[in-house]
Amino acid sequence: MRKDKAAEDYLEAIFQLSQEGQVTVSRLSDSLLVSKSAVTQMIGKLKEENLVTQPYYGSIKLTSKGNDLGKKISERHKLLVNFLTFLGVTPEIAEKDACLMEHGLHEETITQLLVFIDNND
């Protein structure tokens, strides 16, 4: 999948919501604060990339490929939140800033952040 911030946000949200139960268009819409039609449109794109499945009006499920990517994005987000709070940023701001940062950082930067955090725990 090409780098697409919106698609990554959806995959992350689907991954997280799937940990709590079925993922529906309504739940995803509420989670991302977007319209149901926007969710439907993005789900169509994610289906084309073989990242999700959804039977007609059924729940949304990640494919194996989608699950791996959603998990990776979610872990990257948690890493950034942890790093920012380690620096003294409040959890609320760390959460917002992690959302802004997570899509633009190179994989090498993420790896070095992991090394840094592991060495400073």
Automatic annotation (TrEMBL):
Molecular function (GO) terms for this protein are: DNA binding; DNA-binding transcription factor activity; protein dimerization activity; transition metal ion binding
Subunit-level organization: Homodimer.
Q: List residues of the HTH dtxR-type domain.
A: 1-63
Q: Which InterPro entries match?
A: DtxR_MntR_Metal-Reg, Fe_dep_repressor, Fe_dep_repressor_sf, HTH_DTXR, Iron_dep_repressor, WH-like_DNA-bd_sf, WH_DNA-bd_sf
Q: What is its main location?
A: cytoplasm
Tagged with keyword Membrane = no
Q: Please give the start and end residues of each transmembrane region.
A: none
Provide the protein's localization.
Answer: Cytoplasm
Pfam families of this UniProt entry? Fe_dep_repr_C, Fe_dep_repress
> What is this protein's record name?
Manganese transport regulator
Q: What is the lineage of its organism?
A: Bacteria, Bacillati, Candidatus Lithacetigenota, Candidatus Psychracetigena
GO CC terms in record: cytoplasm
- PANTHER family annotated for this entry? IRON (METAL) DEPENDENT REPRESSOR, DTXR FAMILY, TRANSCRIPTIONAL REGULATOR MNTR
Family according to the record: Belongs to the DtxR/MntR family.
Gene3D superfamilies attached to this UniProt entry: Iron dependent repressor, metal binding and dimerisation domain, Winged helix-like DNA-binding domain superfamily/Winged helix DNA-binding domain
UniProt keywords (A-Z) are: Activator, Cytoplasm, DNA-binding, Manganese, Repressor, Transcription, Transcription regulation
